[in-house]
Structures are given as structure tokens and as C-alpha cells.
């Protein structure tokens, strides 16, 4: 008999999709069947979560909000708090409680939160504005090709532009052309599945535009193929903003 030893790393739990997130909300009695999708949409619109390749990721602003609320009012973060509000609404509907009594109960709880918020308001607002400023940096809808965990963010410095992984443990980057207006397209490269960029620029009073996949573009520097531009691709081409086969 042989004993085999293998070394493995603990895998993080899978990211939530629309289906798994809705099921979790239903399990914890958060919202109703009709309101749950709109709750997710509100979180996304307010930049607290981000949807990438049908998976949801919490943003830095979202993390900050949770960390702040833990200090101010931990019960507010528990699923049973929102579920309790839903139950109270049902009690009003079924005439087991009056609207006035329920409003008074909830008002007392929220006043407690409001007092704690006022005590921490200057610090929270100061930090939140920094997170909002940082989140204004555009993110790719494709995951980083190096770690395949998080999107990449666009960095625009005085003399160079590049994409850098938003995962603090990765921080790998892809160079971008220095000149021209960059536009991130919804389309992805059919070869490597990374976002395609459109670059528009003016030269000698004429306007030009071309397309690149940053991953293919950076690989072309390493192999000196010069095929990093979408126009040089032998198999695919960009048509109406989409990468299609020739």
C-alpha cells in the first residue's frame, strides 16, 4: 500500500451569481420576490457591489460601509433586522398591529443609529469621499488575465497609461498606448476573452481610430510579432464594436 501526500490551498467560496444571491436573500427573508432584483440593482448603482462576468464583487466603498456600520450598529447588518421590518409590515397588512405603533418602534431604533452616526459623521464622510474618488477609476468587465480573480482598473499618469489588477495580492499590469482617447468596449477579444479598447486620435487634421486587446497587445511586445493591434489579427476583426471571425 502507498500513502500519497498532496499539497492544496484552501479555495475561497464561489462568488455569488444572480441566482445564488436571490436564493440567499430568500433564505434570509430579505425583501420579497418582486423587490429582491431591485435591491441588488440599487447596490450596484450606488457602487457598493460590481457585477463582472455574471459574478458579484464587493467594492472598496462597499467594504468601507460595512466596516463603518459594524462599529456604529452591528444589529443593522444582521439579516434578521430587515426580516423583522418585513414581518412588521405583514403584521400591519394583517391588522395585527397598527401602522403608528410599527413606525414608532422603527423610529426609536433608527434614532439610536442616527445618534451614533452623528458622533462618527466627520470621520465617516471624510473616508467615504476618498473611497468614492478612488472608485471613479474605470474598471474592466473582464477579470485580470494573470490571477483571474478581480477586474483591472485604468490608471492615467502624466507620461503613461496602464491597467492594473484591483486585487492587492496581484497588482500585475498591462501597458496601454500613450496617445489618443481610450474607450472601453463591452466586447471582448475572441482569442483571450479580455476587453477590447477603441483608441481615437487626431493627426495632421485627420481623425483616426483603431482597436486593441491590451493582453494581445502586451504579448506582441514579448514575441516581437507586431500583431497586438486588432487590425493585424489574422483570424478576427472588429465589426460594429464586436470581435468577430474574419
How would you briefly describe this protein structure?
The chain has 246 residues and is an alpha+beta fold. The chain has helices spanning 18-27, 36-45, 60-72, 79-93, 99-135, 214-223; strands at 49-52, 55-58, 139-143, 151-156, 161-165, 173-176, 181-188, 195-203, 206-212, 236-239, 242-245.
Walk me through the structure:
This protein has 246 residues and is α+β, with helices and mostly antiparallel strands. The protein has helices spanning 18-27, 36-45, 60-72, 79-93, 99-135, 214-223, and strands at residues 49-52, 55-58, 139-143, 151-156, 161-165, 173-176, 181-188, 195-203, 206-212, 236-239, 242-245. The chain has a 4-stranded antiparallel sheet with strand order 3-4-5-6. The chain has a 3-stranded antiparallel sheet with strand order 7-8-9. The mean pLDDT is 82. Helices cover 39% and strands 24% of the residues. It has 2 domains: 18-135, Topoisomerase I, domain 2, CATH 1.10.460.10; 141-245, no CATH class. It has 6 helices and 11 strands.
List its salient traits.
alpha+beta, three-stranded antiparallel sheet, 39% helix
Describe how the helices and strands are arranged.
Elements (H helix, E strand, L loop, with lengths): L17 H10 L8 H10 L3 E4 L2 E4 L1 H13 L6 H15 L5 H37 L3 E5 L7 E6 L4 E5 L7 E4 L4 E8 L6 E9 L2 E7 L1 H10 L12 E4 L2 E4 L1
Antiparallel strand pairs: 1-2, 3-4, 4-5, 5-6, 7-8, 8-9, 10-11
Helix pairs in contact: 3-5
